Amino acid sequence: MKTTVQLLKNHIDEEVKIGAWLANKRSSGKIAFLQLRDGTGFVQGVVVKSEVEESVWNDAKSVTQESSLYVTGTVQKDDRSPTGVELVVSKIEVIHEAVDYPITPKEHGTEFLMDNRHLWLRSKKQHAIMRIRNEIIRATYEFFNKEGFSKIDPPILTGSSAEGTTTLFHTRYFDEDAYLSQSGQLYMEAAAMAFGRVFSFGPTFRAEKSKTRRHLIEFWMIEPEMAFVEHDESLEIQEQYVSYLAKSVLENCKIELNTLGRDLSMLEKIQAPFPRISYDDAIKLLKEKGFDDIEWGEDFGAPHETAIAESFDMPVFITNYPKDIKAFYMKPDPEREDVVLCADLIAPEGYGEIIGGSQRIDDLELMKKRYEEHDLSPEAYEWYLQLRKYGSVPHSGFGLGLERTVAWLSGIEHIREAIPFPRLLNRLYP
Predict the structure, then answer these.
(1) CA 175 → CA 160, 166, 168, 377, distances in Å?
(2) Which of 283, 307, 305, 304 has the alpha carbon at shortest distance from 295?
(3) What's the rounded Cα separation, in Å, for the pair 82 and 64?
(4) What is the pLDDT of residues 52-98, one digit of tens each?
(5) Could you tell me which of 61, 63, 69, 71 has the C-alpha nearest to residue 99?
(6) Counted domains in the chain
(7) pLDDT tens-digit readout, 93-146
(8) Partner of 374 at 20 to 30 A CA spacing, among 92, 104, 128, 395?
(9) CA nearest neighbour of 21 among 2, 39, 3, 48
(10) Helix residue spans in 180-312 (DSSP H)
(11) Is the pLDDT at 165 greater than 80, yes or no?
(12) What backbone torsions phi and psi does residue 413 show, to the nearest 5 degrees?
């Protein structure tokens, strides 16, 4: 019976056949232990010299790291194994023998591993991170489908910026200027006016010359937008969504979390509702913690976000930022014109902002005023203005950065390991 490593637990005491690669091996004079992987997981294959043909033993002794194989054997229960089983091998068929595989069990530098990212993905740790990423994506679709959202795909090539910033990748679109999308939000607002509750999931690009462990040039965003939803209700949906992701990873990625050595108690705490602190109170808190230079009206950097998060043991919303440091489309607080109805969700353990969201301006005249204040091109943004002209409603939305969320839930140090092929300031290869 042909099967996969992931399904071996369903075939205890049965003979099966798997296709696999040799991740590593060790042997004595009588037994060889083959660490096998097939993409669905890792399992140990045990070859006992006295119980197999001489050719099988010779193959087990000589086969090289990352050679591809067909392995036949009997599945046995093994409580010491992360998968709960091991494979007692009876037959080995070498499909292709790998020669001088560059990533060996010894220590390698980060640059070497990044140059060999196409191979590094095969390692147990990187495999675990990508499996967690996949679970977050799966749970995202499940959550929003259950909550009645429709997935709508915004364009990647746009004629303008979502936030009026200068961190744009410019290109030519035949005879006019175009840019790689920083966000699908503006288009998702249009979609929300047609479908009520929508979300997008796709790549976004920021031409920021940053080398921090939190930044990528190309990253993936989940961006829901919701008609007839005001700020507080949006925050409730955000915390329910993040709690759902954490629960799904805990339930479905136990092997991967253990492989990474993740402190599961930190993830078990992630349950809605999340604490909230206003920008005003965050400034006071930072001053109490010794950040004497921070003044009202300044944006928070990584050290500030980390210091705020340390006061809580789960994600925390920082709400109502000053209008002047936020995007043009954010709705002012009806009780305070100098702040807007927005929030950033800060992950604990120093992982920083994972969600930014706000209630959007729904008043046509106020949006026209914002266009003038931010010197936005009426021609490029006319379609966006029309959303306030034809059946405007209160609406809110947010964006979750996939890679920051993967890094946080996985407990890894650097965001570059949270995406299969990272694009960094000085890296476009492989």
Answers:
(1) 15, 21, 18, 18
(2) 283
(3) 24
(4) 999 999 999 999 999 999 999 999 999 999 999 999 999 999 999 99
(5) 63
(6) 2
(7) 999 999 999 999 889 999 999 999 999 999 999 999 999 999 999 999 999 999
(8) 395
(9) 39
(10) 185-195, 231-252, 254-260, 264-268, 279-288, 302-309
(11) no
(12) -80, -40
Q: Which domain holds residue 22?
A: 5-96
- Site of tokens 């604490």: 275
The b-or-e profile of 4-33 (16+ CB within 10 A means b, else e) is: ebeebeeeeeeebebbbbbbbbeeeeeebb
Q: Which two tokens stand for residue 145?
A: 């489908």
Q: Is residue 108 part of a domain?
A: no
Are residues 122 and 92 located together in one domain of the fold?
no
Amino acid, single-letter form, for residue 108: H
Cα 268 from chain centre: 19
Cα(146)–Cα(150) distance, integer angstroms: 10
Phi and psi torsions of 303, nearest 5°:
-65, -35
Query: Where do we find the tokens 């040039």?
Result: 217
Which pair of structure tokens corresponds to residue 196? 């009520």
Q: What is the pLDDT of residue 164?
A: 55
For residues 225 and 302, membership in a common domain is answered with yes
- Between CA 303 and CA 305 the distance in angstroms is 6
| Residue reference for tokens 């993830």 | 267
Q: Residue 325: which residues within 8 A CB-CB, separation 6 or more? A: 297, 298, 299
Distance CA 218, CA 169 (A): 11
**Of 388, 397, 384, the residue nearest 343 (C-alpha):** 397
For residue 320, is it within any domain?
yes
Beta bridge partners of 276: 317
Radius of gyration of the chain (CA): 26
Q: How confident is the model at residue 162 (pLDDT cuts 50, 70, 90)?
A: low
Of 81, 37, 82, 90, the closest CA to residue 59 belongs to 90
For residues 135 and 33, membership in a common domain is answered with no
Any domain includes 177:
yes
Q: How far apart are CA 362 and CA 146, in angstroms?
A: 27
How are beta strands 170-173 and 157-158 bridged, if at all?
unpaired
CB 253 within 8 A of CB 40: no
The four Cα atoms 298, 302, 307, 309 give a dihedral, to 10 degrees, of 110
Question: Can you tell me the distance from the alpha carbon of 57 to that of 281, in angstroms, rounded to the nearest whole number?
Answer: 68
As a residue count, the chain comes to: 430
- Residues 264 and 256 sit within 8 Å (Cβ to Cβ): no
C-alpha to C-alpha distances, 272 to 216, 306, 314, nearest whole angstrom:
29, 20, 9
